[in-house]
Amino acid sequence: MHFAETLERLVELQKTDSGLDDLERMKKGFAQEMTTLDTNVTALKTQVQAGKKALEDLQKLRKTCEIEVGTHDSKISKYLGQQNEVKSNEQFTALKNEIEKSKEEKAKAEERILEILFQEDEQKKKNQEVAKELEQAEKKAAEAKRELQQKITDCEKAVQDKKAERAKQVSEIPVEFAEGYQSLRDHGKKIAVAEVREDQTCGGCNMNVPPQVLNEIRKNIAIQRCNCGRYLHVKG
């Protein structure tokens, strides 16, 4: 096989590999989008649970205050009953003070209950809003994930087609050059066949290409490699 033809096939193989790299990046991007969708839904679910917990805590606190009100009512009733039994003004006054004190504490507890009820209403509204947001997010996520999964499936099919095309291309390249090309790819050099730019530098490493090497490439005397190891080619 003529050197020029081998070099041309290496360039075509690199185009195929670049296409495969692009497809893999696309698949990875689609998968990341799906993960992001799941993360957002999970965050909203966490908010929903936190909202429920906050409401439960408020309800428990209100229940404690209601018990406190009942306790003060019992004290007031008890002290009122005892007033009819006392035999001195000092005892009467002491009970009266206890009654007033219990009424004040009861009033504070009732005021606190009203505050908690207001907070509960606000928390319920917030919970409803977050629950609605979650429902919408889950619906949108499900639709988006179906579309993303289809894109991933399409990418996977395209990858298989590209791999079949690649296998055919590799079989048509002399083993020595096919293995050399693959070795460069395996060592992280995605550009294994570099174009010599107009300023006579390697398109892979930017090093100058000696005139003699460039002349041999143009005359198809041999397939040349840059000092960086890449195969070199010239457009046109």
Strand order, main sheet: write it out.
1-2
- Rounded Rg: 40 Å
| Helix/strand class | mainly alpha
Low-confidence stretches: none
Percent range for β-strand residues: under 5%
Which class of the domain at 21-162 in CATH terms?
Answer: Mainly Alpha
Number of helical runs? 4
Global mean pLDDT: 95
The H/E string reads HHHEHE
CATH topology of the domain at 21-162: Helix Hairpins
Helix fraction, binned, reads: over 70%
Name the shape in a single word. rod-shaped
Terminal CA distance: 19 Å
Question: How would you describe this protein?
Answer:
Helices cover 78% and strands 3% of the residues. The protein is rod-shaped, with a radius of gyration of 40 Å. It is built from four helices and two strands. A two-stranded parallel sheet has the order 1-2. It has a domain of 142 residues: Orthogonal Bundle (Helix Hairpins), CATH 1.10.287.1490. Helix 1 runs antiparallel to helix 2. By secondary structure, the protein is mainly α. 13% of the residues are buried.
Summarize, please.
The protein has four helices and two strands. The chain is an all-alpha fold and 236 residues long.
List the helices and strands and how they pair.
Blueprint lengths: L2 H81 L5 H83 L3 H12 L6 E3 L15 H8 L12 E3 L3
Parallel strand pairs: 1-2
Features:
2 strands, two-stranded parallel sheet, mainly alpha, 236 residues, 78% helix, Helix Hairpins
